[in-house]
Design goal:
heterotrimer, A alpha/beta (243), B alpha+beta (85), C alpha+beta (718), A: alpha/beta, Rossmann fold, two-stranded antiparallel ribbon, 19% helix, B: 85 residues, Mth169, Chain: A
C-alpha cells in the first residue's frame, strides 16, 4: 500500500498523518507539495491524504485556495479512477471546496476554535476506511477546528442521508450493550444531523472533521481509537496479509 | 482596453446559517440598537481588471466569483464596476 | 532633533558623543536611542540578572542567545524561553497576544529548533470589571488564532485574576523547540564577507518604535498607541519555520536571528556585535511594503521576518528555497571587517557607528527602598477563622482562580505535532521526545499575591513550587526561564521588590541546581490607577527518563489510602483562602511559607524516588493554591470517588487552606502503602484517611458531594 500525503502551504498535520501511517505499518508514504503536477511514486499512490491544518492560512474560505492547487488535478483524476482519497479536517474542507464531496463547512456554532476529544458513531463499516469497525460502534477521535459545521440545504441533506453517505456522526459516549444515540445534539460545532464525516457516492472519497491520526500513537493524550481506522485501510489493501 | 474597479460583496445565502450575523445582531440589540434586524456578515473584495468593455469585465468577474470568490452552495455575490483611469 | 525624543537622557547622550568622538546625526541618535531603551538593552536589570545561576548538569546554552537550551539525552536538546507581550496586548488584545506568540516562536526557531509547543501566562483584571473580560477574550482568541494556524500546539499555561491587572493585563508567551544538539544555531558565527539576508514578510510601518514604547508607562486611552501595534500572519510564519528548518537541514546558512523589538536594527547589530565583526545594510535592497524613511525601516517591527547570515556562494540556493515557500528573500547587506554598523542609501552613508555602541548600553542601578508598609504586608493576620469551611472550598474552586479553564484551552490546538502527553489543565505540561521514551515537562508558576506580601519569600515559593510540581511528576530539573513583570523601576520601592524577587528566585535555583537559561523583563507595567503586583513568572523544565514514571492525579480508587507528604500546614498568608474568603477587599496579606532548602531537597529526592517505583500505584498532586482542601477536591473530582479525611484536633483552617512548602497529596492502594511510606523515611508523611463514597468528608468539619464540587469547578469562574 502506497500513500501520498499532500502538503499545502499552511498544512500542519501532514507529518502527523505520515507518522500515524508509519506507526500502523501501512507501507511507504510520499509527501507531495501542492505545486507538483503529479504524484512521484511509480504507478501512483493507493491512498491520497489531504491533511489538517490551515492551507493558505484559511484565507478567503477554509480550503478554497487549496482546492485550486496544481496537485488537485492529480487528486481529482486519482479519485475519478476509483483511487482512495481521505480528507481530514482542513483536508475535508478542501474536498468540499474542490467539489469532490458535497456540502460545506461553516464556522462552529460558538464561533470559536474547538479542540477536544469527541465521540463519533461509525455509521457504515462497509467502506475501505471503516471496515475494521463495527457498524454503530462509538469511538473517540479528537477534533480541532474553527469551521466544522457541516451544511447542506435540507433536500440535499435528506438525499445524502438516504444514500447512506454519512460515515461518522457525533454521538453520546458508548454504553455497554446499548446502541449509542447520535445526532445534532451531540455536535460540538452545531453540525447538521451530527455529521462528522461523509463519503462520496462512489465510496472512494472520505472527508471527516475528527482526526484519527491524533488518537493513534500510544502514550500520548486522547487515546488510540484511531488505530482501527488505519487498520481498516490496511485490511482493505491486504497490507498485513502480504507479510 | 478599459480599466475597472470591481467591488464584490459576498454574503451567506438566505437559509444558510449565518452564525456571525446572528452574533452581531444579538450584540447590537443588547447594546441598545433594538431597531436593527437581518444582520448578515459576509466578505468584501476589491480589485481592478482590464477588459474590452464593461460587459466583458462583468463576464470575467462572474467567472472569478463562481470559480473562487464565492462558494455557490452557501454564498451569493453581487458586484459593482466602476471605470477608472 | 532632540536626543530626548529618542529616549536618551543627558548622561546617555554625552556618553554617545564621547564614544563616537563627535555629535551623532539624527539617524544615529534614533538608532542608539532605541537600542539603549529598556526594552532592548535591559539597562535597569542587566546587573541584577547576573545573579541568576547559569550552571547545571543539563545546561547547553544559557542566556545571551535567542533562547536557552538544555540536554534531553539521545542527542536532543530543548530550546525554551518566555517573553512578555504585555503592552501590545493591553492596546490591541488580539494582535498583541498573537504577535507575542509569533515572536517567541521565532526566538526558538532562531536556535535552529523546531518549535514544538507553546504555553501562556495570562494575568487579567477581575472578570466583568471594566474592559477585563473583553481584553481576556481578545487575548485568548489571539493566542488561538495564531498558535493554531502556525501549527505549534498550546499545551498549557497559567491564568490569574486580580484587580491590579485591570487595564494592564500580562501576556507572557512561552515556547519551546526540539533541536539536535550538534545543530544549534549561534549568533556568534557571522564571518567577514557573508551576506545579511532578509527572509519573510516585507517591511512596513507597523510596530515602529514599539521597543521604546514598551519602556514607557501605559497612558490609558492613548489612541495614538494603536499605530505601534504589529499585525501577525501565522500563515507566513508557518512557511518561515519550514523554510528556515529546510535551509538549516541543507546547511545553507551560517546563522540566523529573529526580528523582534527594533527589527532590522536590533537583529543585525546584535549578530555583528556578538560575532565581533561589522555590518553594512543598504536601504534600497530591503523589500518594503510602502515608502519609508531610513529610521522607520530600521525600527519597523513588521512580523514574520528572519535575518539570515549566508555565505555568498550559497545565496542562490537560499533564494531558490525561499521561492519554493513563496517567501520574500533579499540580500540587504554584508558583514564587514571594521566593527562598524553602517546604514547606506544610494551610495551615501547615513549612519556609521561602532557596533559596540549599539550592543552595550550603559547599565543603570536605580535606588531601592524598602516599601513603607512592608512590615504590615508581611504580617499574617492572626486567628483567621472560617465559619463555613465547606462553603469556602466551593467558593475557591468556583472562583476564576480555582475553576476549570476549559473555556480557554479548548480554543487552543493542544495536540498538533503529536507529542503532547498531558492534558491542558494538568499541573504540568508534558511532551514526548523524538525517538525516545522520555518526557520533557514544563511547570509554569507565578504568585503575585505572595510576591506582593513579601517579594523575596514569594519569589522563593514560586520557584520552589515549580520544582515540587516537576519532582512529584517524576522529573529531574533541567532549567528555568522567567519573565519578570514589574512596575516602573524608577520608584525605589518597586525596584526593591524587583531586586528581592530576583534574589529569591536565584537563591532557590542555586540550591536546587536549576540553571536559568533565558528570560525576559517587562517593566513599567502601570496604569494611572497604579502598578501591578510584582509578578515574576517562571517556567521550569524537567526530564522524566521514561513515560511510565510520570505521576499525575485523578487515579484514586475506592478503598485507597490518602496521605499527605510534608508538613501538615504551610502559611495562610496571602493564600487563596485568605484573599478570596477572608479579606473583604481581595487584598493579599501576610508572608507565605518560609522556604527551607534542606526540606525542599529532601522532598524532591523522595518524590522522585516514589515516581521510579513501578510497584507503587499512585495518584498525586502538589498542595498549592487553595491548600489541601483544593488538592483533595480535585482528586475527588478527577478520580470520581469521594474521600473521608480525619484531621484530628488540628486547626482546620491551617490544615485545610494553608499553602506553600514541600507538601503533596498522595492516594495509594493499601497494597502499596507500606512501600510508599518507607520511601518517605525521614520526611513527614501523614495518613489522612481513605477514598470512597461520593463526597469529600472532613470529619467534624464539613461534607461536600462530588457533584457539588464538580459543578462549581466546571461551571464556576464565568
Amino acid at each position: 500500500m502506497k500513500t501520498a500525503v499532500v502538503v499545502f502551504p499552511g498544512s500542519n498535520c501532514d507529518a502527523d498523518v505520515a507518522r500515524a501511517i508509519a506507526d500502523s505499518d501501512l507501507g511507504p508514504v510520499e509527501m507531495v507539495w501542492h505545486d507538483e503536477g503529479d504524484f512521484k511514486s511509480a504507478g501512483g499512490p493507493d491512498l491520497v491524504v489531504l491533511p489538517g491544518g490551515f492551507a493558505h492560512g484559511d484565507y478567503l474560505r477554509s480550503g478554497a485556495l487549496a482546492a485550486k492547487s496544481r496537485i488537485m488535478k492529480a487528486v481529482k483524476s486519482h479519485a475519478d479512477g476509483g483511487g482512495l482519497v481521505l480528507g481530514i479536517c482542513n483536508g475535508f474542507q478542501v474536498l468540499t471546496e474542490a467539489r469532490l464531496l458535497p456540502g460545506a463547512l461553516l464556522p462552529n456554532k460558538n464561533l470559536r476554535f474547538i479542540c477536544a476529544p469527541c465521540h463519533v458513531r461509525v455509521e457504515r463499516s462497509d467502506t475501505p476506511f471503516t471496515k475494521a469497525f463495527k457498524e454503530g460502534q462509538v469511538v473517540q477521535f479528537p477534533i480541532a477546528h474553527h469551521e466544522g459545521l457541516y451544511f447542506l440545504p435540507p433536500d440535499e441533506l435528506a438525499a445524502l442521508e438516504s444514500r447512506g453517505q454519512v460515515v461518522f456522526r457525533y454521538s453520546a459516549p458508548a454504553k455497554f450493550g446499548e446502541p449509542a444515540d447520535a445526532g445534532e445534539r451531540y455536535s460540538p460545532n452545531g453540525s447538521l444531523n451530527g455529521i462528522a464525516g461523509v463519503i462520496n457516492k462512489r465510496g472512494n472519497v472520505l472527508g471527516l472533521m475528527p482526526h484519527p491520526e491524533r488518537s493513534t500513537l500510544k502514550n500520548l493524550i486522547r487515546g488510540t481509537d484511531g488505530r482501527v481506522f488505519w487498520q481498516s485501510l490496511g485490511e482493505y489493501f491486504g497490507v498485513w496479509g502480504d507479510k | 482596453m478599459m480599466r475597472f474597479r470591481v467591488d464584490v460583496t459576498v454574503l451567506p445565502k438566505d437559509g444558510v446559517l449565518d452564525i456571525q450575523g446572528k452574533a452581531v445582531e444579538h450584540t447590537l440589540k443588547r447594546s441598545g440598537y433594538s431597531a436593527v434586524d437581518d444582520v448578515r456578515v459576509g466578505r468584501f473584495i476589491r480589485f481592478s481588471v482590464e477588459a474590452k468593455s464593461e460587459s466583458a469585465a462583468g463576464t470575467l468577474v462572474d467567472s472569478a466569483a463562481d470559480d473562487l470568490l464565492a462558494n455557490g452552495l452557501i454564498e451569493s455575490y453581487t458586484y459593482k464596476l466602476e471605470r477608472i483611469q | 532633533m532632540n536626543y530626548r525624543d529618542a529616549g536618551l537622557s543627558d548622561g546617555e547622550y554625552n556618553k554617545i558623543k564621547e564614544m563616537l568622538g563627535r555629535e551623532p546625526n539624527d539617524l544615529e541618535t534614533i538608532l542608539t536611542g532605541v537600542m539603549w531603551s529598556e526594552h532592548c538593552s535591559y539597562k535597569s536589570t542587566r546587573r541584577l540578572l547576573a545573579k541568576f545561576p547559569q550552571k547545571g548538569r543539563y545546561l547547553v546554552q544559557g542566556p545571551g542567545e535567542n533562547a536557552g537550551v538544555v540536554d534531553c539525552h539521545g542527542g536532543w536538546g530543548m530550546a525554551f524561553k518566555v517573553e512578555s507581550h504585555n503592552h501590545p496586548s493591553a492596546v490591541a488584545p488580539y494582535q498583541g497576544a498573537a504577535t507575542g506568540v509569533g515572536g517567541i516562536i521565532r526566538d526558538i526557531l532562531a536556535m535552529g529548533a523546531r518549535p514544538a509547543a507553546s504555553m501562556d501566562g495570562l494575568f487579567f483584571g477581575m472578570p466583568g470589571s471594566g474592559r477585563s473580560s473583553a481584553l481576556a477574550e481578545g487575548i485568548v482568541e489571539g493566542i488561538a488564532g495564531y498558535g493554531n494556524a502556525v501549527g505549534v500546539p498550546t499545551i498549557g499555561g497559567k491564568t490569574f485574576y486580580d484587580p491590579c491587572f485591570e487595564g494592564n493585563p500580562l501576556v507572557n508567551a512561552f515556547s519551546c523547540g526540539i533541536v539536535r544538539l550538534d545543530r544549534i544555531v549561534s549568533s556568534k558565527t557571522a564571518r567577514v564577507g557573508d551576506l545579511a539576508v532578509l527572509l519573510g514578510s516585507k517591511t512596513g510601518r507597523d510596530g515602529i518604535a514599539g521597543a521604546s514604547f514598551a519602556s514607557r508607562e501605559l497612558d490609558e486611552g492613548n489612541r495614538e498607541s494603536r499605530g505601534h501595534i504589529q499585525i501577525g500572519d501565522p500563515f507566513e510564519e508557518k512557511l518561515l519555520i519550514e523554510c528556515c528548518l529546510d535551509l538549516l537541514e541543507s546547511e545553507l546558512i551560517v546563522s540566523m536571528q529573529d526580528m523582534g523589538a527594533a527589527g532590522i536594527l536590533s537583529s543585525s547589530s546584535e549578530i555583528a556585535h556578538k560575532s565581533g565583526v561589522g555590518i553594512e545594510i543598504v536601504c534600497e535592497r530591503i523589500p518594503l511594503r510602502e515608502e519609508m524613511e531610513p529610521w522607520e525601516i530600521f525600527l519597523s517591527e513588521s512580523q514574520e521576518r528572519m535575518l539570515l547570515i549566508v555565505s555568498p556562494d550559497k545565496y542562490e540556493d537560499v533564494r531558490a528555497t525561499a521561492d519554493h515557500y513563496a517567501l520574500e528573500c533579499a540580500a540587504a547587506g554584508s558583514i564587514t571587517d571594521d566593527g562598524r554598523y553602517r546604514v547606506i542609501r544610494n551610495g551615501v552613508t547615513l549612519a556609521d557607528l561602532p557596533v559596540g555602541i549599539l550592543g552595550d548600553a550603559p547599565a543603570i542601578d536605580w535606588p531601592a527602598a524598602v516599601p513603607a508598609d512592608m512590615d504590615e504586608r508581611r504580617a499574617v493576620p492572626r486567628d483567621m477563622k472560617s465559619s463555613d469551611p465547606g462553603g469556602d472550598l466551593l467558593k475557591m474552586i468556583g472562583s476564576p482562580h480555582g475553576s476549570c479553564r476549559r473555556d480557554i484551552w479548548t480554543q487552543y490546538d493542544c495536540q498538533v505535532q503529536l507529542r503532547t502527553a498531558a492534558e491542558p489543565g494538568e499541573p504540568v505540561s508534558a511532551l514526548r521526545m523524538p525517538d525516545s521514551d522520555s518526557l520533557v515537562l514544563f511547570a509554569m508558576e507565578a504568585e503575585p499575591w505572595k510576591c506582593r506580601a513579601d517579594p523575596r519569600i514569594g519569589a522563593m515559593e514560586t520557584m520552589a513550587h515549580s520544582i515540587r510540581v516537576l519532582a512529584l511528576a517524576g522529573a529531574d530539573v533541567l532549567g528555568m526561564t522567567n519573565c519578570l513583570n514589574f512596575p516602573s523601576p524608577e520608584h525605589p520601592e518597586n525596584y526593591y521588590e524587583l531586586v528581592q524577587c530576583v534574589e529569591g528566585l536565584a537563591a532557590v535555583c542555586r540550591d536546587m541546581e536549576c540553571p536559568v537559561v533565558s528570560g525576559n523583563v517587562s517593566l513599567y507595567n502601570e496604569t494611572p490607577r497604579g502598578g501591578i503586583y510584582p509578578t515574576p513568572l517562571v517556567v521550569t523544565a524537567g526530564l522524566v527518563p521514561h513515560y511510565t514514571y510520570f505521576v499525575s492525579g485523578g487515579h484514586a480508587r475506592e478503598g485507597d489510602e490518602v496521605y499527605l507528604a510534608g508538613p501538615t500546614s504551610g502559611s495562610l498568608g496571602s493564600s487563596r483562602w485568605q484573599v478570596l474568603c477572608h479579606s473583604k477587599d481581595m487584598r493579599p496579606k501576610g508572608a507565605s511559607w518560609m522556604y527551607d532548602a534542606a526540606k525542599e531537597k529532601d522532598f524532591v529526592s523522595k518524590a522522585v524516588l516514589v515516581s521510579r517505583k513501578a510497584d507503587i500505584k499512585k495518584s498525586a498532586r502538589v498542595v498549592a493554591g487553595g491548600g489541601l482542601a483544593v488538592a483533595l477536591a480535585k482528586e475527588v473530582i478527577f478520580s470520581g470517588v469521594g474521600m473521608t479525611i480525619d484531621i484530628a484536633d488540628k486547626n482546620p483552617e491551617e490544615v485545610l487552606f494553608s499553602e506553600g512548602g514541600p507538601r503533596a497529596l498522595y492516594v495509594i492502594p493499601p497494597a502499596s502503602a507500606e512501600k510508599f511510606v518507607s520511601c518517605w523515611k525521614g520526611f513527614p508523611v501523614t495518613r489522612l484517611g481513605t477514598a470512597g463514597g461520593n463526597s469529600l468528608v472532613v470529619k467534624g468539619c464539613f461534607e461536600v458531594s462530588r457533584d457539588d464540587l464538580a459543578a462549581e469547578f466546571f461551571g464556576g469562574g464565568k
